[in-house]
Each structure stands twice: as structure tokens, then as C-alpha cells.
Amino acid sequence: MDLKLLFISALLGVACYSSAQPEGNECIKANAESCGDCIQAGAKCGWCTDTDFLKQGEPTSARCDELDSLKKRGCMATKIENPRGSQRILRNKPVTNRKKGGEKLKPEDITQIQPQKLALSLRSGEAQTINLKFKRAEDYPIDLYYLMDLSYSMKDDLENVKNLGTSLMLEMSKITSDFRIGFGSFVEKTVMPYISTTPAKLLNPCTGDQNCTSPFSYKNVLKLTSNGKQFNTLVGQQQISGNLDSPEGGFDAIMQVAVCGEHIGWRNVTRLLVFSTDAGFHFAGDGKLGGIVLPNDGKCHLENNMYTMSHHYDYPSIAHLVQKLSDNNIQTIFAVTEEFQPVYKELKNLIPKSAVGTLSANSSNVINLIIDAYNSLSSEVILENSKLPEGVTIAYQSRCKNGLVSTGEDGRKCSNISIGDEVSFSINVTAQGCPKHSKSESIKIRPLGFTEEVEIRLGFICDCECQKDGIVSKDLCHYGNGTFECGACRCKKGRVGRDCECRRDEVSSEDLDRNCRKDNSTDLCSNNGECVCGKCECKKRDNPEEYYSGKYCECDNFNCDRSNNKLCGGHGRCECRVCVCDANYTGSACDCSLDTSTCLASNNQICNGRGICECGTCRCTDPKFQGPTWVVLSFGTGEKKDTCERDCNYFTLIKVKDRDKLPQPVQTFPLMHCKERDANDCWFYYTYAVNNNTEVHVVETLECPAGPDIIPIVAGVVAGIVLIGLALLLIWKLLMIIHDRREFAKFEKEKMNAKWDTGENPIYKSAVTTVVNPKYEGK
């Protein structure tokens, strides 16, 4: 192979090796000075507690590395500190397997999620997986609160809702034997411009002979009850009211229903809020129209079941409503007319566990709407978690019906769940480091719309067990300037060095630095480390297999000679930049094999008895078997061109015209076909055979590479220059045309805008004088 090709291949080989270097691991990058710092760097990190583990020049942080790397470096497994996380189940009540008509249970005795309480011990970077099971209980209690818009446009709807109580109780009895229903109504804030504040309109906001009740913001008409007839009676007593603008104040009412649990009578069961309207809604910021600027405080303000602070606080925002509905486990059903379906569907996308149904013009389909919406909401379970502590992440995986497995955001939920179906969730909780303030935290996970939750207590592994056995003694760590723990000194504040022998403020003094220079060199620690307390602490490499060592960090195990792109040819180890070869190998790169089996000829003689075996290759000693060097005499070139007649007279040279004329091998004597490249990069072909005499056949014509065709190259360059010049001229011409047109347009514009003075010259007198005869009577 050509030397150039060999050189390029060598470069490529080195480049390939460099790019294949393993990336630095998180353990080395952490520069951990203690076992606690090390185990927080990552789940793969361990700390070697062996007191004799470190080599000369290695810093204390070299004790922290990946487990496999520590073992390769000679640290026994029993000396590696590597605590792991764990989990304990504290409460694990089985899910309820109750059937309708069976034993009557209190809501708090029904369990749909398991387990209920756990404790996790988290190691940084190591995920702890917990498995949750959810099962929809049959005959689960339901509380439903019907919140209705009583503005004038809902007059016909009110008539149909008056009999809703008993009808809905009958339908819901097919789902649960424990059902309660309540009723509330809303109109609008009682200030201008939402309502008319004239005295007459405050008494009766409706026009004509319509008898309407005074406007109000929100009224809790009926607390949740299992008495359907009471619902019909109280709703039948309600009257329509009125307001001025189209959007209603429903958000004020929803907020009060969510936060006024005692007034509404919510239990810890399935909570449904049916919001019925035929109009849009006001939200945060709209209160400014009425001079209300205080944001909604999200608190209960019911007095005598009336919302009394509508004129004081603005409407709540959508995000505020989402928070309060979620905090109180309320699932919302928006029963709205066809006209406002698009608006409330967008609102549904912002409120988890909500549904939208199309309300007929007179609310005649409200029962079917509620049943369908409830079935839709209850058939889906969505897990949510409370705010996570700093550095803690959580990932969900769901295993739903029919073996469907989902991850990511979809891993939080399962759909199409029927009563009695059981689904499971795998939840990975991972911590990155330890919290700054507290070493114990807790999070809660619960299914949206349900009151049950799973409490998870979090503990963090921030220190190693060996740190508990730390020793403070004057005999250790330079007269007690540190604690000897986990095989190394943990220095007090302000102290540095492997044995805490120096103060931080004297680390870089000249006297100490002198001890870090080899042979009075100007380089500290051979530029491969830092001088700490007069001792070199060598740099760490990203590749854990590579390291600097020595008193002055002058040694390393990765800068030895290479062969075949391998350090020490793959047949030795690198010690202080010198290859220590394995048995049967020698050479600076351990690339010379002492095995002679590759030099054995078919007659079992080494090199046919005509040479010696060096590095697994024959080197001929007889000049008749020196190879093709003398063949170039046929062309009068080569290193022996002047002595060929004398030195090469022991063979016969025969020239042939082309390669086809070269002799072919026969059984009577061996024949070798060869080709070589001369100093002019030309190939020549020949054969040689050793019989009674040596014959060499050479093709007399050399095969030389053709030189470049100059004419096309020159023509191409000239054509390129011409084309570039033409392109530049065209661009210049185009720019000039654009510039001229802009200047002309500017001139025309100024010409049109010019205002010439048309006033008369005050000195000018006309040459014509007109005189009128005063006696002339026009006859």
C-alpha cells in the first residue's frame, strides 16, 4: 500500500478511536469530596472506603466512580458504599367488592384505590416504582347539585325542572341506592351595568306585566337531600329574574358551590355539579365594568344562603375555578343550549373531569343529559398528584382494560371503565439530589373526582452509613482538622488536602508550589493536575479507564504507542506512557509477535531456511530472495540502477509486451505473479520463478496515472470568471434601475404636493379703466 494511503489510514484510525471514547460519567464529574456527595451524584455511583485505594497523585474525589470501574481499579465489593432506595406499605386496605343490595356501608368504609399509604426512601437518580390498583365500586353514593340560570330567557326551562327531583331520583336509583340532590340558582352581580339599578327594576327587572323576582347573584335554594319531593316543592316556588347583558354571573355561583361545603352538604362521595344555562359567562376582569377591581378570594360568603359579596369581589378566573373544583373533588356537567356548545366545549377542555351536554330549548331532556354525562365521567379515571418537592419527578404508566398500556400523560388515565372493572398504575418516583431544607416530604396522588387518595411519604438518602462511624482524633486528618470517615478525611471548613494538612488561604503559596514541579520545571504537576498543599492532585479524565498518576502527575495509561488503532496493539498495558507487553509480544507498541508459526513454510522450515522470522514476518538473508527491488533495472531506475549489472547477474530477465504474455503457473516449478509501484507512482507487473536458475518476466510498459486535462480546467475557470462578471453587471444594472425609479417617484410626489402662491401683485394695476355714466338710465 502507498505510504500516503497508509498515513491517511493511520490518521483515520486515530480519529475513529478518539470519537469512540466513552462519555464522562456523572460520578467523576461530581468531584465528590465525601461519600454523601458521591451517592447524590447518581444511582450508578459508589464510594470506595478502602484506605489504601488511592494511588499517588489521585485526589480524594477519585474514590467516587461507577461500581464496575471501582472494581476494575481494585476496590473490593465489600469496601464499596452503595446504599439503595426502598419502600414500605403503611396502609393497604383491599378494594371493596360490594354489590348493589348487599351490606350497607358508610362512604368512608368504601375503598376504590389500593394501597392508601406508603413510605419511600429515595436515592438520587434511582427510581422507586409503586403499583396502585383502582376498582370502581358498585352502588357508590352520589351527591348531585343542580345549579340553574334563572334569568328571564330560562322561564320555560324552570317549568320542566320543577318536577326534576322525583324523576331524577327514580333514574339514579338504577345506579346507586344512596343518592342526594340539591338546588341553587344564579342571575348576575347586582350592580350596573349588569342589571338596572332603578328602584322599580330592582323590585321587578322584567318588562310589561311579567312578575319577576328581584335580581340576585347566587342563592342556595336547597341543601343536598334524599327527599325528591322537597326538591320539587322548593324549586316550584322559584321565580324568574332578569338582567341587562347576555353573559351571566355563573362563575360566582360555581365558586360558592365549590367552597361552601357545609352550606351545600357535600359528603366524601361522588360529587356532581350540573350547571344549566342558555348564555355565556363573565370571568375575571369583567368586574371592572361595574367598578369591581378586587380579585375573587375563593372563600365562602353565604349568609342566609345568599352570596353577599358579588358587588365586592370580581368574577373568578377559569384557572381559579379549576383549582377549587379539583380541591373539592367536584365533577361538573355543563347542560347548555346548542348555541353555546362550542364555548362550553372549550371550557370543558380546561376543566378536568367535566362534561358538556346539549340542553333542549325547554330543558325537557335534562334527565337523560345528566345520566349520559355521569356515565361518561365515571367511566374514566385520571390520576393527579399534589405539588412535588424540589428535585422530585414522577412518571405514570397505566394498564387498562384489554391489556392497553400507556405512558406519559396518557399513563395517568384509563377510559371505558365499567362498574367492577379493575385497572392498575405503575408510578416511578425519582429524586435528583437532596432537598435543601427538609429531608422528609410527602406527596398525594388521587383519582380526579374521587375523595380517596394515596399518601406517599418521601425520605431521602443523603449520607452513607459509614459516615455515622466517623472518627475525630488528633492522630488522624492532621491533628483533628477533619473527620476520618468512609476511608478518607472529611476536612473542616477552611482546610484542604488529602489529610486536611493545609489551610485554604495557603494552598497556592510559592513554597508549596515548588514541591509540585518536577526537575525544577515551570509546569505545576506536569500540567496534568493541581498543586494542593504541596502535593499534586491529578486531573480526572472523562473516560474512567484513563487516569494520570505519579508524584508529579507525569504518568498516564493512555498515551502509549498504538498499533492497529489499539493501545499497545491490544497486547499489553500502558504504564507511565510505556507499553508493558504480554507474553510472546515485544516492541514499543507490543505489535511484534514472538510467535514463529506464521513464518513456517510448507516444508516446516522457518522462512524456507532462507531468512529469519521477525515479528511474525520473514526477512530474507539470501540476496537472491530480496524481493522485487531489482526488477526496476528493466527500466533503468530504482536504488540499484547503477549496480544492477553486477549485483543481479544471478537471474535471467525477460521482457514481454503486455500482461497477457506473462507465463502462467505450472506444476513443474513454482511461479509468483507480482506488481509494484515505483518512485514515479507507476505500476509494473512481473513474475519470478526459482528453478535451476531464476527467471524474471517483466512487462516492458509501465502503467502510469494520466495527468489532469489542462484545457477543460482552464476553460472552466475562464467561463466561471466571465459568468460571475456578467452576473455582477446585471445586479448592478438592476439596482440602478430600482434607484432611478424611486428617485423619479419621489420627484413626482414632491411635484404633486407643491403649492404655488396664486396671490395677486399689490402694485399691479390693470390697463383697462371702466367708467359708468351716472345719468345713464339703461334706455
Question: What do these coordinates show?
Answer:
The protein is extended and about 140 Å long. The N and C termini lie far apart (134 Å). Strand 25 (495-496) and strand 26 form a beta hairpin. Among the domains are: 86-99 and 106-138 and 383-461, Sandwich (Immunoglobulin-like); 142-379, von Willebrand factor, type A domain (Rossmann fold); 559-593, Laminin (Ribbon); 650-699, no CATH class. The model is unreliable at 1-22 and 626-632 (pLDDT under 50). It has a 6-stranded mixed beta sheet with strand order 4-6-22-21-16-19, with no helix packed on it. It is an alpha+beta fold.
Spatial strand arrangement across the major sheet:
4-6-22-21-16-19
What is the alpha-carbon Rg in Å?
Answer: 48 Å
Fraction of residues in helix: 10-25%
CATH architecture of the domain at 142-379: 3-Layer(aba) Sandwich
- How many strand segments? 42
Structural class: alpha+beta
CATH classification, class level of the domain at 142-379: Alpha Beta
- Mean of pLDDT: 83
Distance separating the two termini: 134 Å
Query: Which shape, going by the Cα principal axes?
Result: extended
Query: What is the name of the CATH topology of the domain at 142-379?
Result: Rossmann fold
How would you sum up the major sheet?
A: 6 strands, mixed
CATH superfamily heading of the domain at 142-379: von Willebrand factor, type A domain
Number of helices: 17
Q: Extract low-pLDDT stretches.
A: 1-22, 626-632
Keywords: Calcium, Cell adhesion, Cell junction, Cell membrane, Cell projection, Disulfide bond, EGF-like domain, Glycoprotein, Integrin, Magnesium, Membrane, Metal-binding, Myogenesis, Phosphoprotein, Receptor, Repeat, Signal, Transmembrane, Transmembrane helix
Transmembrane segments: 710-732
GO cellular component, one term: lamellipodium
Membrane topology: Single-pass type I membrane protein
